[in-house]
Amino acid sequence: MRLTTALRASLVAISMAAIAAPAAPFGIGLQPTTVEMAVQPGDRQRQVINLGNVHQEQTISLTLGLADWSLDEDGQISLAPPGDSNVSAADWVRFSPAFVTLNPGETEQVVVDMAAPIRIDREGDYRFALIASTLLPEERSGQSGVWKKYQIASLFYLTMGDAESAPEITTATMTKSAEGETAVVFDLENSGNAHARLRGDIEITGDSGETISESISNLVVLHEGSRKYKLPIAGALPENPQVKVTLENIFAPQSSGGSVMLEPFTSDLSFEQTALPTGGSDDAETALE
Q1: How far apart (Å, rounded) are the C-alpha atoms in residues 20 and 16?
Q2: Coil/strand/helix, residue 11
Q3: What is the dihedral of CA 192, 196, 200, 205, to 10 degrees?
Q4: Nearest alpha-carbon partner for 274 in 176, 164, 129
């Protein structure tokens, strides 16, 4: 099935804010929210996506479609019509059904069939998203007839042929916003042709001997991409702070084990006075997902 022209147009410039989480506020659950597949030219793959209506009383109808997607430097998702991106795999995909109605407590399976082309221009990551959309009345005091569009998505990464993810932290900067909020902002780059998915630990130490610790999980850096990770600091920083970051890339197709430990990143920290946008830990898994 393909996306209709009207739905294609509605996807342009939609961000993460328009996409619901796995246990969606509008009552639809979707699993899995992220699909990672290794494919070869000419391969055929199949994935089943499960949709469930968790409402006790409300029946919900959903329209299914495809979209391209990407992450900005703050890890927010942007959607675009299928086929617009040079990394799009949407043309490889067919799915069924294209429309479902779920009674309270009912579930439905969407079958996604993927047929990779025999000839490709490059190896590495290709992407698409399966989007489930609905219109529901918005509850506003004293108003009626107001409808709001809700969406939930499953993000697909199809990694083709000889692929490698090569993430690294390039810089760490301590910042303070105009409101006095302190944070450490890490700049990450991935020079590989496949995405990286990172987990690990951040430690900030100083002359006082105190340690600030924070865990990172599910931090995605797209192939040939860059992004920022912002760590808010709630309490006082140690004097002469130093940061150490230990990360594991748990999506490393170049490794027989599928994961690679990165070289630990260490740096002294000094302030850069700036106002930062709100950002944080990640991707599709925590916000859609």
Answers
A1: 8
A2: helix
A3: 50
A4: 176
Quickly state the pLDDT bin for 140 (edges 50, 70, 90). low
Burial class (CB in 10 A: 0-12, 13-18, 19+), 137: exposed
* pLDDT for 14 beyond 60: no
In this structure, are 82 and 186 located in the same domain? no
pLDDT confidence of residue 24:
58
pLDDT at 66: 97
Are residue 16 and residue 98 in the same domain, yes or no?
yes
Q: Which of 153, 133, 138 is nearest to 287 (CA)?
A: 153
Q: Where are the extended beta strands (E) located within the chain?
A: 14-15, 28-31, 34-39, 44-53, 60-71, 77-80, 93-96, 99-102, 107-115, 124-137, 147-160, 167-176, 182-190, 196-205, 211-221, 225-233, 242-249, 260-261, 265-268, 271-273
Q: pTM score, two decimals?
A: 0.83
Q: Are residues 214 and 146 in the same domain?
A: no
pLDDT at 249: 98
Are 95 and 21 part of one and the same domain? yes
Same domain as 11, residue 154: yes
Residue 160 confidence (pLDDT) = 95
User: What is the distance between the alpha carbons of residues 136 and 130, in angstroms, rounded to a whole number?
Assistant: 20
97-135 pLDDT tens trace: 999 999 999 999 999 999 999 999 899 999 999 999 988
